[in-house]
Amino acid sequence: MAAVNPLKITDVILRDAHQSLLATRMKTEDMLPIAEKLDQVGFFSLEMWGGATFDACVRFLNEDPWERARQLKKKAPNTPFQMLLRGQNLLGYRHYADDIVERFVKQSCDVGIDIFRIFDALNDFRNIRKALETAKKYGGTVEGTISYTVSPVHTVERYIKMAKELEDMGADIICLKDMAGLLTPETTSAIIKGIKDTVNLPIHLHSHATTGLVGMNFMRAIDAGVDMIDTTISSLSMGTSHYPTECIVAALKGTEHDTGLDLDLLHEIADYFKEVRTHYAEFESDFKGVDVKILDSQIPGGMISNMENQLKEQNAIDKLDDVLLEVPRVRKDMGYPPLVTPTSQIVGSQATLNVLTGERYKVITKETRECVMGKYGKLPADIEPSLLEKVSDGKEIIECRPADLLEPEWETICKELGENFTSDEDRLTYAMFPKVALKFFDTRGKPLPKKTPAAGAPSSAPSAAPAPAAPVSAQGAAAYTVHVNGKPYTVQVAPAGSAPMAVAPAPAAAAIPVATAPVAPAGGGGQAVTSPLPGSVFAIKCQVGQAVNEGDTVIVLESMKMETEIHAPVSGTINSILVQEGANVQTGDELVLIA
User: Looking at 20-172, which runs of residues are DSSP E strands?
Assistant: First the structure.
């Protein structure tokens, strides 16, 4: 029987599947050998870019994400390539000026992206208009995307209204993005039917398997007339990932919705990725089954595996359950934002800080402050008054489109990079992640050091760089790592007769080694400003001898990709700065002394 209304499939194996299960660590070298087979299947599209892949390429894999897209396009020229784009956030964690958005979207078209799934974390569609218009201007197909969540203010009627708004904006396809697997069969049917009755565009459904409801939801969506769904090859499916492609193909075979895809070819591809998965065992999420409790925490698949990784790096994995309980409390306080990048990171990081510091909102990240104050757009509901009071400091919440307040950025980026990096791609990479990009430019094309795997570990698993041999300075001093009471310290040893060298805690073994010697001598004592959390020093906002007032920002830490401002606890004069930018610090480490 010929299919009357064949279901179209987008396979997310090259992006969301490994983002959800393997902390986005899959390398291009593991994608290229199977790309031609993927191209032969006949998918509606392959999602292979965007989301966290850009960040992971430059931060962890020493890969150029633009080059990944080009290489894959050469191997798979026939299947449309799809990316996930965060509207005005692009692929970063803040809003970018319109000139950056336009250049980034154009460059993405140039390297082979055909379909842009564009969303805003708050469903504030003012924040996707520029990216949508630019993608269409340069020939791209746009999926206007609704971020699905559950709260007292999110109703079926509200989602149908959003779909109509996206159609009026010029979207080519409506995507319902269920990033945490929160849909239920009845709700799925109601929303898809409602949108079908209201909007004259194809509907694409994206959902995760986390809560175990996805198979039932898909069948109800198919019965309600959905046009496309997202699945992934079975060997990287389920858990926090997606429903298996092969299951949908088999279930619909011979029906009016028959996909027409070749199961034998899909089996061959599944066998390939079964082997590839073993290369990334150290990044595997401990979550491998079904957890209906996610209906309460609402944490999306990719966020769980990355949160586990971040807590492991901070030796706090035992706090995971507490963090999962804290997430919905923070989300309610912040006006029920959907949990999708960047709001998932913002809410998740704030919840983690609340747990690690032992006090709710003792430390508030810069991104939490900006989100509450409207710099990411309009929140769906009212903000908890006590949190708003703590964050606002008497200032008014932003009501306009946040990007309207931003000055053009491109010329500034060009000046900052000078003649060192002049390609548009490098400049755009720098615009997304300035400090990370500079480190990447320095190591690009060079093999990363590998450690010897522990017994039983896959030999090809990616790993953190080992500590280097003790570096020797021009004065003959050498740096060594020693352990005292289980804590690592970097010690600089100088020849006899030379001035004594300073001692500071060594960076964690999994981090890139950085200098940790004081910027200024620590003589004279004073009140110590200590780190309230583990992280790295993102920026130093003071100088030795500078007068500061209580509450002034003296250090900015980066932890879990979020920035946290550290304020002076007293007024006085900066006596010593005990860390350098890039240094790794632990909770309680002294950062600055104020006399």
Answer: 45-50, 81-85, 115-118, 141-147
Going across the sheet that includes 487-493, the strands are: 478-484, 487-493, 503-505
Helix (H) or strand (E) holding 438: helix 434-443
Q: Where are the beta strands (DSSP E) in 496-589?
A: 503-505, 527-530, 535-540, 547-548, 553-559, 562-567, 572-577, 584-585
Q: What is the pLDDT of residues 161-189, one digit of tens each?
A: 999 999 999 999 999 999 989 999 999 99
The torsion of the CA quartet 355, 359, 360, 365, rounded to 10 degrees, works out to -80
pLDDT tens digits, residue range 483-525? 443 344 444 444 444 433 333 333 333 333 333 333 444 445 6
Phi and psi torsions of 490, nearest 5°: -95, 125
Question: If you average pLDDT over every residue of the chain, what do you get?
Answer: 86
Helix, strand, coil percent values for the chain (each to nearest 5): 40, 15, 45
**What is the DSSP secondary structure assignment for residue 147, as one 8-state letter?**
E
Packing angle, helices 245-252 and 263-277, rounded to 10: 160
pLDDT band at residue 101, thresholds of 50, 70 and 90? very high
Give one word for 64, left, alpha or beta, with left for phi > 0 and alpha for psi -120 to 50: beta
Q: Which residues pair with 147 in a beta bridge?
A: 177
Which residue is listed with tokens 């949190």?
387
Rounded to whole angstroms, the Cα distance separating 554 from 568 reads 6
Whether the bond between 342 and the residue before it is cis, its omega within 30 degrees of 0, is: yes
Residue 86's closest CA among 179, 189, 188?
179
Q: Is 162 exposed, middle or buried (0-12, 13-18, 19+ CB in 10 A)?
A: buried
Compare 580 and 506 and report the one with higher pLDDT. Answer: 580
For 538, phi then psi, to 5°, come to -80, -40
Q: Whole-structure pTM over 0.70, yes or no?
A: yes
pLDDT level of residue 306 (50, 70, 90 thresholds): low
- What is the CB-side half-sphere exposure of residue 318 using CA atoms within 13 A? 1
Residue 69 · residue 113 · CB < 8 Å: yes
Can you spell out the DSSP letters for 155-217? -HHHHHHHHHHHHHHT-SEEEEEETT----HHHHHHHHHHHHHH--S-EEEEE-STTS-HHHH
Cα–Cα distances (Å) from 418 to 98, 411, 424, 439, in that order, read 22, 10, 12, 16
CA distance 420 to 273: 39
Reading the block at residue 317, the tokens are: 């994995």
With residue 482 as reference, give the H or E element that holds it: strand 478-484
C-alpha to C-alpha distance for 182 and 209, rounded to whole angstroms? 9
What per-residue confidence (pLDDT) applies to 299? 72
C-alpha distances in angstroms, 172 versus 142, 279, 314, 506? Answer: 5, 38, 44, 53
Q: Which residue has the tokens 């990216």?
A: 131
